[in-house]
Amino acid sequence: MIAKRWSKEGILEKLWSKIDKKNPLFFASCGTGLVAKLLEKAGADSITTFGGGRLRSNGWGSMSMLWPVQDINGQVLEYSGHDIITAIKGDAFITACINANDPLRDMRVFLDQLKAIGVLSVANSGPSISDYDKDSHIYEVLTQSGITFETEIEMLKLAKEMGLITIAMPFNLEDSIKMVKEAMPDIFCFHAGTTKGGLIGFNTPYSLEDTAKRTEEAYNAVRKIKNDLILLTHGASLVTPEDGQYILDNTSGHGLWTGSATERIPIEKAVLEVAGKFANLEINK
């Protein structure tokens, strides 16, 4: 097959056109080609690939990628090119969430490899050290080992120089301000925390109201630094379409970025319901 190729200009033009028409943007992550195909058919603007998406599809929580159970960047490169881009028509573009702190990969080479397979949009959250509490032992150990938030910022700056769309995806207000100020990304997505719900969802301390409040606080802060940012939110208590509408109604953002909400949780429900009916059939003769 020959996969459709986007240009940076074409992607941004499409996104801003929707924003100007007051149509919310919809980014969604996945770990399989089937889900990518369904997300595109449903109207997703961008399909997100990341190591946690593949782990989630294998029955683990997406944040299990924080533990070194696989070559995250290798996985992203392989399944983005083999499973995802080949499964979709090209109406949606691919965003790759990558591990900028990979000690065994030159980010310039890796970003070139992503561009070669048709990925023109990258984010820093695959995984991000921003997810760790700064007063924790693990944060101190990682940063002293050279795993830093600054490296993620440098990756986004390099990606921008190389002509890719850059997406800042920090987990807190402090990191949001720092990343936008230094990397000047095209898109900002506030990561409100690991998504709750389903069989393996995180028991998040953030209610839907808290999720919206923290998101809007971040939006207000980063907009003062760069007023032409595309603004998205992801995670925590954003689980259902009704939750999404609440976020849109109570923040000044341009759209939503889903993960488990449009992959793991609906798959769990659908398979359990249908398989349960098969498991309870009767032999009546």
Explained architecture:
The protein is globular and about 70 Å long. The chain has an eight-stranded parallel β-barrel with strand order 1-2-3-4-5-6-7-8, surrounded by eight helices. It has 285 residues and is α/β, with parallel strands linked by helices. 45% of the residues lie in helices and 12% in strands. The chain has one domain: TIM Barrel (Alpha-Beta Barrel). Helix 9 links the parallel strand 6 and strand 7.
Give a brief outline of the structure:
With about 280 residues, the chain is α/β, with parallel strands linked by helices.
For this entry, give a set of tags.
TIM Barrel, globular, eight-stranded parallel β-barrel, single chain, 285 residues, 11 helices
Quote the average pLDDT: 92
**Biggest beta sheet attributes:** 8 strands, parallel, barrel
Q: Could you name the CATH homologous superfamily?
A: Aldolase class I
Number of domains: 1
CATH C-level class: Alpha Beta
What is the overall silhouette? globular
Helix content: 40-55%
What is the CATH architecture assignment? Alpha-Beta Barrel
Order of helices and strands: HEHEHHEHEHHEHEHEHEH
Total count of strands: 8
Termini Cα gap: 50 Å
Strand order of the largest sheet: 1-2-3-4-5-6-7-8
**C-alpha Rg (nearest Å):** 19 Å
Low-confidence stretches: none
List the helices and strands and how they pair.
Elements: H1 8-20, E1 25-29, H2 33-42, E2 46-49, H3 51-57, H4 72-84, E3 93-97, H5 107-116, E4 121-123, H6 137-144, H7 149-161, E5 165-168, H8 173-183, E6 187-191, H9 208-225, E7 230-234, H10 241-250, E8 255-258, H11 264-279
Parallel strand pairs: 1-2, 1-8, 2-3, 3-4, 4-5, 5-6, 6-7, 7-8
